[in-house]
Amino acid sequence: MIDDRIEAQRIADELQESVARAGELAEKLGLTPYPVNYWIVDYDEMNELIAYGGFQRRYPHWRWGMAYDRQRKQNQFLGGKAFEIVNNDNPAHAFLQESNSLADQKAVITHVEAHADFFANNEWFGLFTDRETGDTIDAQNPAAAEMLARHAETIREYMRDPEIDRSEVERWIDHVLCLEDTIDQHRPYAPAVADGEANLDIADPAERLDELDLSEEVTQQVFGDEWLDAQAEDVTHSFPVSPEKDVLGFIRKHGKRYDESAGKAVEMTDWQKDVLEIVRREAYYFAPQKMTKVLNEGWATYWESVMMVGEGFADADEFVTYADHMSKVLGSGGLNPYKLGFELWQYVENVANRREVVERLLRVEGITWRNFHEAVDFGTVLSTLAPPAWIEDVPGHLGEIDSDDPRVDADALERARDGEIDVEAYPWTVLSQEGLVRRHYSLVKPQHRGFLARIGQAQLEQISRYLFDDSRYDSVDAALADVEYARGWDRMREIRQSHNDVTFLDEFLTDEFVEEHDYFAYEYSQSAGDFRVSSTDPEDVKQKLLLQFTNFGKPTIVVEDGNYGNAGELLLAHRYNGIALDIEQATDVLERAFDLWGRPVNLLTIDKDYDDSEIEVARRQNREPDPVEIGRQLRYDGQQVTIEDVPWEMVEHLAATDVDYDTRPEEWLS
Length: 670
Hints:
Layout: H1 2-28, E1 36-41, H2 43-51, H3 62-77, E2 84-87, E3 92-97, H4 102-121, H5 123-126, H6 144-160, H7 166-177, H8 205-212, H9 216-222, H10 225-234, H11 247-254, E4 257-259, E5 264-266, H12 270-291, H13 293-310, H14 319-331, H15 337-361, H16 372-375, H17 378-385, H18 389-392, H19 410-417, H20 433-439, H21 457-465, H22 476-481, H23 487-498, H24 501-508, H25 511-517, E6 521-525, E7 530-535, H26 538-549, E8 556-564, E9 569-575, H27 583-597, E10 601-609, H28 612-620, E11 628-636, E12 641-646, H29 648-651, H30 665-668
């Protein structure tokens, strides 16, 4: 144990310099991250932290053990490797695995600094965090780690309570977790407190009669079947007024629980209400991370690359190890959020920089959108845009750098000349942010040198349409002298502040991007009985990706009625976007939702039916069969699940006229 602590301390000491320098470089690059606390952990501790979602204390539940076992087996049998985990907190906490190489640790540190910048500046994370104080919206819990630790202790206390059956607590958590993604992630978190509607007496009249304990004779004479039918017809109270997306919050406000011994709905106990709200609050805390996986991981990978490769944070003898590290991160199969996000951020930067240059060139006398490709010498333009030699090679030109140049950090230059700074290892220290912008200008990088010339006529015409003629240039050189080199990074920071994955993909996954990177869509083929490439059309690819990220990639379920049938039943509805529910999973969820509501739970959805003969014909014609869309209602009454076809009029409002990605922030936050 002592040897382990000594080794951890040695690794920590070795990383101190890298941590300090990475923070300085991130700041010079224009990032404004939360402060980060770094922790050295061993292999088992890292797997535990990954299972716990980046925190050291979580409430007792089998899900964490399952996640731990999955992570450990992935490392053991699939060649996976845990590099880091960082949580959204102020300060953020990052955990480094002690067995990783120094090159891996440096990559993690630069990656983490960018994550911390994203946490601190993205508005979707701000829905749960007070930007002024860094506190969570729930004022009783001043930081995420403390909030989750407090939740853990609260649930442990309930499990230790001799008057509460531990298995009942675990079972209740299981029920709530089935609905943890049915929140309104586009709204700020607010505790769900019972309001007036929660106290409405919506019990079935027959249940009320049972509570009166009247004789059978009186019941039949005064409150017979005709009376009961009349009561159901007289007053119908439906709520909410409009569909409620926060299903968990609605259940917390209006739900009861099913008491098996009493055979009816009764009020939730205090501990059940508390546990439900704890799980709901944590779902809101983790929602921004689920909503920004591509955006966030791509952002961190982009700046890690700038620092590790562009600024030589990986030493020469570490570079091969780092290249292997990056190939594992970007080379994993399937939909890789690191790769997709990284490529999209590079594309955003290139598009912004290209537009800036094109706007200048279109103001040059004699250059129009029609003759742009013939009139512009792109090789000469790129040579002019390239950084001067002293910016590319600071150590080789240290003696001739002008300290008054705005691209230079004059104080650092003086200290570098006095030998106080190792300029060979950290050349960026001598440059200001303006100098680093020029040093990393994207259009002149070898891998992007053709991007400027690839602009199409339609794009040129669109840009020229919004240009004013009051600022003209006599020559290309004069136009390029006014280029704002920071345009790309400025645009990236704007996007980082306001977007999530859905809005990011919706706006920037263009035809040009899809074709350049050879993206394609694939789906299950009913006729072939297997997965296959379904389309290479950019619009199809975009639609497929958006569907995978809308609502965390989960079905969107809303509450339509909390007094369905005027009997206190719950009516949920599936907002259908062309993808049918897994009926077996849906029935399992309904059974658990029943215990949270206390009365029968219904679900309206649209399902797809495929005729066997149509499938056979489609197979012979090498096409996909056309499904028939059918309205269905699932209901669980505590005993059995029933599935009935319903008239199309009952579900027509659930079908999107166009694929509904919920991508308009002004609608979310209005």
